[in-house]
Amino acid sequence: MDSTDLKIVSMLKKNARVSASAIAKEVGLAVSSVTERIRRLENQGVILQYTAIVDQSKIEGGITAMIGIKIEHTRYIDKLANIISNDPHVVSFYILTGDLDFLASVYAVSTEEFRQVHHAIANMEGVAAVKTYYILGTKSNEPGE
Question: Pairing mode, if any, of strands 90-95 and 63-71?
Answer without folding.
Answer: unpaired
